[in-house]
Queue: 4 jobs
Job 1
Amino acid sequence: MWFHHFKTVVATLVVAFIGVSVRGADIAHDSAGDSVYNNGWTNGSNGGYGWGGGWQMHAWNTDFQSLLGDSSTNGLGDPEGDGDINSPRAVGGRAWHVVDGYAVRPFSSPLAVGQTFSIDLDDHGTRQYAYGVSVSISLADGSDGLVLFAGQFSDPTPEYALSYRTGFSTHGYVHTGVPLTDQGVHIAFTRLDESQVQVSLTPYLAGVNTTTLDVTLDPSYARQLSQVEFNAFSSSPTPSLNSYINNITITPEPSAVGLMALAAIGLLVRRRGTRS
């Protein structure tokens, strides 16, 4: 009898869980190599697939530019000759960058538990006044959920740092331990549960491992991570101080998240039944 009730409860939980999971973001991808950008990266450009709309450009001042460029030309160049984060990944390829403003790409829906948003960032690798760079995962209204800073001038530590929303007006702040690099870094944000998000950083440097951190957000923010924002402030388009992004992706598709949960709960039911 108890097992019958157990299965009923589990079935109810499965239906509820999958009902929430399938409302996650569609699987999505885009890169600067898409032919849509052959004539430039402008407001409304909508390359790739699976997103909630095209790029939205926002200017801090009249010097704003949204451009395609070679990410291997910033910082100290590209000593490894691998093209940093370009598409194609070779010297002479291209990536996106902005000057004096920020670019936003909306997801089709907020990230579900189990989904990952990833992006390549190639900052200039130094702390420079008026050349701050950040990548943030935010709510649809622009409120920040998580912000990864590269060379924030007010922070004396020359490494990537993470700010995350712990309440309506409060934030946590943590150093990642990953030194700034002008060779590019792959960043992934994964929703683990109703409040936790795992952030991983993998520099594009030989022999360097992936660093992961789990941070706890206010659940009302964790449930509404709906867009990516790339913010770069500089007083002029100086090539060595440009910062770039490329290769944005959301995985897995929502139905896969639900199926993984169903498989896990089904295994639990089977074990319970065997023990009975």
Job 2
Amino acid sequence: MIGLVRRDVAYIYDLVEFDYEERSPVLVRSGLDRKLRLVGALPIGLRLIGNMHKHLGAPIPSRVDEDMFLKYARGGGQHAFVIYTVDPEDARAFTVRDGRVIEIGCEVRALEEDEELSSIRLRISLDVRACFPKSSSIFELKLLLANALCRELEKQVGLPKMCSGEEEISDVAKLVEAGLASVRSYMPVDVEASWSPGLFYRFYVDEGLGDKELIELVKKALGQDIDVVGQDVHEGIKFLRVQREDVHGGDRALEGPAEEGGDEGPPPPVPPDVLTSDMERLSSRRSDEEDRSRLWGRGPRGCRSRDIGQDGHKEDNNS
């Protein structure tokens, strides 16, 4: 059953018979091929609500039916299932709530005018920024894009502005009359981090955002020690080049005393009772400890040890 759920009411607009893996007088098992192809072809707004099938006896779900209903429910979203009989003519609907199959109301009738579907086309221009290791293969890049493009579209579009020409459409009737509208996305801004070659951050902002507000937005995300050292616009994309105070080029060492998050300071003292034969092993261990202290003492944007987990990953909302 293809349809939608609106205000806790499921509306069905089409029925598609699935192919069968198994079919007998007492058991029918649907295949997956047509289901997967059908779901892939559904437009925005419509989805697979559930299924409808016939019983020879009363329209009451069997144990097999209930197991199938529960599998649908585990996939998330609201679902409805209809069981009907021909003689006598009867139909009953069911859904899953709190892990239990329950009966819900079922009404078989023609759709009212305001329940019928309207359809429009939306044209979206998508521009994204991707960063990946130089040694990546084209297959790895395709996997990266396949996993990330939907989220990137969500960030770029936000709450969509639908426009006809340069004018934003605010009335559904005008939108349907136009038939085709463009989705105006936020303005992309690429921010190049000069201290790490190849690293770009991508922001999406309102077109009317001023330079001062934009820089403040970047600082809120990357840290207040950010300075803008270059600006440009290329093919409609705003470009900023930024650097951190006291961080230059590929040298990622932070200047300043260790207690303030820097790398300066004397090496750890060697215990006086260490044997000469143990010095080489101690030196190697001390080097590991120094690297570890830098990790724990300074995270991205000057975060301290409480912001970094023991496995080396951030545990707060920064990234």
Job 3
Amino acid sequence: MSKHILSIIILFFIWSQAVSAEKIDLSNTTVKTINGKTINLGQIIGKKPVYLKFWATWCIPCREQMPHLEHSFKQYGDKVETIAINLGINDSLDTVKMTQQEFQLSVPIVFDKGQVLAKTFNLIATPYHVLINKNGKIIHTGHDASKELDKKIELLAVGLTDNIKEVSLNKSTPGQTKLNIPNNKPTLLFFTSAWCDWYLEKLRPNMSSQCINAQKQVNTLSAQYPALNWQGVLTRLWTGEKELNEYTKKFKVPFIMYVDATNQHFFDFKVNTFPTLIALKDGKEIFRTNTFHDTKQLQSQLDSLAAP
């Protein structure tokens, strides 16, 4: 049986009438690989099939799927533009290169600087696979390295995706919570995650300890400086109201915390490392820190912030 006939048979498994879906506009977006190559997404999307894989070095299923990603790139990379997009959250060039070497990756890897692509594709969790046909329409999103994903990548490579059902990006997230940042009261925003304490315990133990210690320290400081406006912001990655409630109960958080439902607050405040504490006064940022080992220095900064 020829590969062409096999592809047609596969098509019947995922065939459906096309439905309307958004066409991604990245016409002015360029990214640079960790090896220094510039990729102009505007010259690719809408002209060539694209496979985007969002990942992080500390994401366990992302690591488990690395051989699949590399295999897909080697098999179809000449026909399907394949890019591994690191979230750029709690990651560094060194950790990414270590992962590249560990799995002997040749697939192009880029950092999502400012989480522009994560925002564009409404990223909620990693790993995240996005397939875009040559017309610029999204035909697949998902978290699993599944048979369906493999079939669609093969069909992208042979140009048989015109009648595959297009999919819309998830727009079901609740409205964005507006932070309470009064002009007449200094505000402390504590950015963190509801899972970094336990999820990273084995893979990134130092990061896990940092998350735990930071939350405990901020709890203590909020009690010492009650005149300041303390608020917590949790990344929406793998997090909903259930996880928010479990987290605040576990750590006995004494101030209000929100799930950043669209991650817009993380984007607006350019937070790419958690935990991070940001101090605001009269609408302006006074300081920020993501190290919590020097309690005296942080208390000194808070004393200055609280002073009339």
Job 4
Amino acid sequence: MFPKTGFVKGCVKCMSKIAIIGDKDSVLGFKVVGVPVFAVTESEQAARLVNKLAKEDYAVLFITEPIIAEIKETIDRYRTLAYPAIIPIPNNRGSLGLGMKGIRESMEKAIGVDILFGERG
């Protein structure tokens, strides 16, 4: 078995765990499709939860942007690791632009040019 993925060599059917983290109003709808939902109310609670889920081999954590903004230090710890992939999602009030900012920074780091907005790094 490959660490942190759930993949087994030669296996056709492979599963990875995903979860949604955010305020209750923003994440409750994901429960309908069977995704594990974790409603948080405090930044310390969110940081502990991210660390816990990472240790439990969750491959992808979708986290609402306001929560990501509050626990930036914790999120930054996982940026260089393959797992868990942390994906910002808007909350029920809309986007803060963190997802697009992350994509732009990744593109600039990878190729040295901001191809999304046409700025050169």
